[in-house]
Structures are given as C-alpha cells and as structure tokens.
Design a protein that fits this description.
It comes from Neorhodopirellula pilleata. The chain has 191 residues and is α+β, with helices and mostly antiparallel strands. It is built from 4 helices and 10 strands. The protein has helices at 2-18, 21-31, 89-98, 172-187, and strands at 33-38, 44-48, 52-54, 63-68, 77-85, 100-107, 111-115, 118-133, 142-157, 163-171. Strands 3, 4, 5, 6, 7, 8, 9 and 10 form an 8-stranded antiparallel sheet that branches. A two-stranded antiparallel ribbon has the order 1-2. The longest helix has 17 residues, at 2-18.
C-alpha cells in the first residue's frame, strides 16, 4: 500500500514537470501564429493561427491566407492578401473604397497608427463588392458583384516611403469575426 502511494506521488511529480507552465506557454505561442512576414526589414506581421496559409490567386500577391467563420467546407471564407505595392496611400485607399457600392455601402474613417518604424493606415469598407475576375485591379476582366461583403485594408509605410498592402476581403460576417485579429496583426507589425 505504501509503495502505491509513493508511486502515485512520483507519477504526479513527473506529470507536473512534463507539463510545466513554461512548456505550455511555449506551445501556446507557436499555436497562436501561422507565419511571420517580414515588412522591409523594419517589422514583422505575425499572422494569427486562425488565418490559414493558402495558394495565392494572383502572381502579384506575395502571401495569401484564408479566414473562415464556422466549420466545414461550405463555411464562408475571406481572403487575406499581402504584397508590396506603390501608388500613394490616399490613391489606393480611394481605389479600394471605389470597389464597393450599393445602398448599404459604408466607409469607416481611415485609422493611422505608428508602429515602430512603420506607419499603418487602415480602412474598413462594407457593401456590394465588385470583384474583377481574370484580371488585376487595373485590367479588364469579368466583373462579379458580391453583396454583403466587407474589406479591411491596411497600408504599412516604412521610413523610406515603401508601401506594403495587407487586405482581408470577404463576406461581412467573416470580416467582423476576424477584425480584431487583423488589426492586432497590422498594428503590431513594427514592434
């Protein structure tokens, strides 16, 4: 009987060492991100685990992830895209706003946040999204109207004026579900 009690105490001690708080914290930190994306050597986007790596749908996209709301293959999904770009902050934000229409169109105020050496400009637009199929934003191609869509778009500008675009576009419910994670990712990029 005494042997059993000693064995139980020894087992409990080994179990507590094997699942120490530092080990659990380390595993949790790894589980909370899927990637780190360098932004001009002046910051890193730590991509949250809920954004799953996916194949880029265009050659100009450097990194693409998907975000879903719900479970299963038919769960609504949004695209999260990342790429270097140019053309000016205001001109690009105006172009993004112009991709939305409809009577329910809403444009949020552009937020500007300093994050280390990066300045992060973020805007949210909702309404009917006009997606260009088979072409980029400046080329022809079939236009598809997507009602009840939303976009969170950020332009990260470094100390040399270079711009890095991060956008999440998809059904409004998906954007709402992941808005806090998206903003945390872009706002902490320069830290």
């Amino acid at each position: 009987m005494k042997f059993q009690a000693t064995a139980i105490v020894a087992f409990a001690f080994l179990l507590s060492v094997a699942v120490s708080p530092s080990r659990v914290w380390s595993d949790q930190a790894v589980a909370e991100s899927t990637a780190e994306i360098d932004v001009f050597g002046e910051g890193k986007l730590v991509v949250p685990a809920q954004f799953k790596k996916s194949e880029a749908q265009s050659r100009i996209i450097e990194h693409e992830f998907s975000a879903t709301a719900g479970e299963g293959d038919d769960a609504p999904m949004a695209r999260v895209t990342m790429m270097r770009a140019g053309g000016g902050v205001e001109a690009n934000i105006d172009r993004w706003k112009g991709q939305f229409g409809g009577s329910d169109k809403k444009i949020g105020e552009t937020e500007v946040v300093e994050s280390g050496k990066l300045k992060v400009h973020t805007v949210k637009v909702t309404g009917e999204y006009t997606e260009t199929m088979g072409g980029g934003p400046f080329s022809g191609g079939k236009k598809v109207k997507r009602p009840d869509y939303a976009m969170l778009g950020s332009i990260l500008v470094d100390s040399n004026g270079r711009q890095y675009f991060v956008k999440m576009i998809g059904p409004a419910a998906v954007i709402e579900a992941h808005e806090a994670a998206f903003k945390k990712m872009v706002h902490s990029a320069g830290k």
